[in-house]
Amino acid sequence: MFHTYLDQTISFEIRYKKRTSMSIHIDRNGYIEVHVPKGISDELVIRAVEEKWDWIQEKLHEMQDRMNGPKIKVYEHGEIFLYLGKEYPIQVSQDINIQQDFAVFEDGKLHIVVKQLEDEKIKQALKRFYYQQCKMLVSKSIRIYQSNFKLKPRSITITDNKTNWGTCDSKQRLTFNWRLAMAPQQVIDYVVVHEMCHMVHLNHDRSFWRLVGKIIPDYEEQENWLALSSWKMTV
C-alpha cells in the first residue's frame, strides 16, 4: 500500500496477526510492515501510520545513514555518542592528578576526565564507562525478570563480542556485549530475557519464542531497534 502524508509518500505492507494492538516494523532495508489485529480497517491502519509518521521518517533517514556507513568519531567537545538509546555530547577535561581516566554521565553530557588529552585515552575511558554501565544495567534487568525463571544465571560477563549481543551456555553462564549500554532500557531488557530463556531452551525453537513472547510481548520491536541502530553503537 502507498500512502502520501505531509507531501511525503511511503510504501508499507499490512500484516494481520493474532494480537490486540498495532505495531510498525522497518527492516534494515527500509521495508515497512504494519502488524495489526484481524478485523482492523485500512482507515484505522492509515491513521496509526500517520500518528507515527515522524518516527517512520526518522527511521528511514537513519537507514539511509546506515547505508552510508558509520562516521569516524572524533574525541573532542561536542562529539555525539549513544547512551541508553539517546545521543549525548561528550565533554572532555584533563586532570593530571587522577589515578585513572574515567567517564560519567551528568547533566545530559558524557563527561570524560583523562590525565593526557589523547584520543586513545579518551576512547578507552569512554569504553570503560560503557562496560561498567552495561554490567549494572544487565544485572538490574536480571533481578527484575528473575521471578519468571526457576534457574538462575551462574555468572554474568561483559565482553567485546562483535557478533552477538548476548550468549548463554549449557551451564547458565551469561555474557553480554558492552555496547548494549548504548541501547534503550527496553532493548537491554529484551536481550537479557532472551538469554535467560536460553537457560530453559538452548535453541530457538517454538517453545523458546513462546517463552520470550510471554515475558516480552513486544520483543519484535526491540529486535527491530537493534537491526536498525546497531551500526551506530560504536566508540
Model description:
- This protein is of the alpha/beta class and 235 residues long.
- The protein is 37% helix and 26% strand.
- It is built from six helices and eleven strands.
- Strands 1-2-4-3 form a four-stranded mixed β-sheet. A four-stranded mixed β-sheet has the order 5-6-8-7.
- Helix 4 (185-197) runs antiparallel to helix 5 (206-215).
- The longest helix has 27 residues, at 119-145.
- It is flat and about 65 Å long.
- The protein starts with a strand and ends in a 6-residue tail after the last helix.
- The model has no long low-confidence stretch (mean pLDDT 92).
Query: What is the helix tally?
Result: 6
Shape: flat
Strand order of the largest sheet: 1-2-4-3
Structural class by helix and strand composition: alpha/beta
Percentage of residues in helical conformation: 25-40%
What's the helix-strand series? Answer: EEEEHHEEEEHEEEHHH
- Please describe the biggest sheet, giving its number of strands, its sense, and whether it closes into a barrel: 4 strands, mixed
What is the mean pLDDT? 92
Runs with pLDDT <50, length 5+? none
What is the terminal-to-terminal distance?
39 Å
Number of strands: 11
The portion of residues forming beta strands comes to: 25-35%
